[in-house]
Write a structure and sequence with these properties.
Blueprint (H helix, E strand, L loop, with lengths): L4 E13 L3 E8 L3 E7 L18 E8 L4 E10 L8 H17 L7 H16 L4 H15 L10 H8 L12 H18 L5 H13 L1
Helix pairs in contact: 1-2, 1-3, 1-6, 2-3, 3-5
């Protein structure tokens, strides 16, 4: 009999499984990125319906299996459902979640990535910085956490972002030149590493074309 355990995490993505269930990809502080089955989450009034949503942050009671976990209890700590009300915020949050999913692995604790994702969702909802700026700063900060960003040639704005604790990642106000450099650097660094296209990035590029 496998022992159940509570973990803290954020739901990165959700997909349908069978007629009534959901498959979640969850980034956890303790276990890293894991797959979780939420049985019955698509049934009306099911206790897991609210928690089995993308961008939900909470505590999850898990029963481990051979290749995945089964959700047996949950406590929502913060719902970021409002991100789905704005198309750019939704696409931006999906992009950050998908990029996080790319870099994280099961068995490797994801505390820093989890906290970065949390403050990023808050920044998107706050709206003080443009979504494109938040995405770029997130990308650079995440790559730095993963040891994939070269600091030597960074601009003053990027050096400032990298010098801040995760909770203060978005405590800046970019100039127009700084904004362009931030986005250009983030895109270049991301494309150098990724070996497959992100679905959310395709959506964002489609939105940008519509605005031109």
């Amino acid at each position: 009999m496998y022992e159940e355990q509570w973990v803290r995490g954020i739901v990165l993505s959700v997909s349908q499984l069978g007629e009534y269930d959901k498959r979640m990809v969850v980034l956890t502080e303790q276990l890293g990125r894991i797959t979780v089955f939420a049985n019955g989450a698509r049934r009306q009034n099911n206790r897991f319906t609210a928690v089995a949503q993308s961008f939900t942050m909470g505590r999850f009671l898990l029963r481990p299996g051979k290749q995945a976990y089964t959700l047996t209890g949950a406590e929502i700590q913060r719902s970021f459902l409002d991100l789905t009300l704005d198309v750019e915020n939704f696409a931006s949050a999906s992009y950050c979640s998908e990029l996080t999913e790319y870099f994280t692995r099961e068995g490797l604790g994801g505390k820093d990535e989890l906290n970065l994702l949390y403050v990023t969702f808050l920044a998107l909802l706050e709206g003080r910085l443009k979504a494109e700026v938040v995405r770029a700063a997130f990308c650079i900060k995440l790559l730095d956490i993963e040891g994939e960003f070269a600091r030597d040639a960074a601009s003053p704005l990027i050096r400032y972002i990298l010098s801040q604790p995760i909770g203060a990642t978005y405590s800046f106000e970019p100039t127009e030149e700084g904004r362009r450099e931030l986005i250009r650097t983030a895109d270049k660094a991301r494309d150098r590493i990724l070996d497959y296209p992100l679905r959310s990035l395709e959506v964002l590029e489609s939105l940008e074309r519509q605005l031109i």
